Amino acid sequence: MRCPPGFLLCSLLLVAPHCTEVAAQDVQPDPKMPCANWMGGAPGYPGHNGLPGRDGKDGQDGLKGEKGEQGVQGPRGDQGEMGSPGREGPRGFPGQPGPKGESAFIYRSAFSVGLAERAPPPNVPIRFSKIFYNEQSHYDPSNGKFLCNIPGTYYFAYHLTVYLMDVKVSLYKKDKAVIFTYDQFQKNNVDQASGSVLLHLSTGDEVWLQAYGEEGNNGIYADNINDSTFMGFLLYPDLDVH
Fold first, then answer.
1. Which of 81, 90, 156, 188 is most buried, most CB within 10 Å of its CB?
2. Rounded to two decimals, what is the model's pTM?
3. Which run of H or of E encompasses 161?
4. Residue 235: CB partners within 8 Å, gap ≥ 6?
5. Measured on CA atoms in the order 28, 30, 35, 37, is the torsion positive or negative?
6. pLDDT tens, position by position, 70-115
7. Which residues contact 198 (CB under 8 A, 6 or more apart)?
């Protein structure tokens, strides 16, 4: 049967695309080859760097490292504010007893007297009957003697006016002369004889003044403008007794 030329042309046009599709399905390009077996083109330029990614999560803590060497001491800082008082500490043990102190009680013993008349003969106590101070009555003006009532250390002194004759006088403690004073009188003049001493006395000890020697050695004198005085007072008592 003979087909018309127009029919054949149409058939070829319909079959040609199908064959082309089949051929395209049978022959697949190799993706590893450039341009899929076609002629490769020139390599492209590298792309731009991408943006940094976000920080990842913290990892686990590592092992503790070895202790490093001590660094150089830094400058001293400013003084901080005073902190609040801390708690009261425990009570300490009692301390050792301290040395024995002086007594709170004040011991007094003192006198100051003067001559009111001519001195008595030598070798007997001189009676100073003019009383300047004798508050404790430890001096007896009737016999001229000081009686110790408080054992301790005492200071005694005398200042005598010398007139008309020489003076030899001594201070006695318990019937024993302790110190001696001698003044040679100068005519038409008034002299002074004096002495002082520190003594330790026990309770009951007596202290007094008396002239010694002959009658011509008793020139102790006193009037309304010249005095002869005798005094004494306690410096400090014996603490081991009181």
1. 156
2. 0.57
3. strand 152-173
4. 152, 153, 154, 155, 198
5. negative
6. 888 888 888 888 888 888 888 888 888 877 665 567 899 999 999 9
7. 153, 154, 155, 156, 235
242 in any annotated domain: no
DSSP letter (8 states) at residue 34: G
In a domain, 166, yes or no: yes
Whole-angstrom Cα distance, residue 127 to residue 102? 35
Domain holding 200, by residue range, is 110-237
Q: Are 208 and 141 in contact (CB under 8 A)?
A: no
62 in a structural domain: no
Q: What are phi and psi of 215, to 5 degrees?
A: -60, -30
Summarised one tens digit per residue, pLDDT across range 40-49 is 678 888 888 8
Q: Where are the beta strands (DSSP E) in 174-214?
A: 176-183, 191-201, 206-211
Domain CATH for 129: 2.60.120.40
Going along 1-144, which residue ranges are E strands?
A: 110-114, 130-133, 139-140
For the chain, the domain total comes to 1
Pairwise CA distance, residues 179 & 155, whole Å: 13
191 CB contacts (<8 Å, ≥6 apart)? 161, 162, 163, 167, 183, 184, 185
Residue with tokens 């018309």: 4
- Give the amino acid at 45: Y
First-to-last C-alpha distance (Å) of the chain: 174
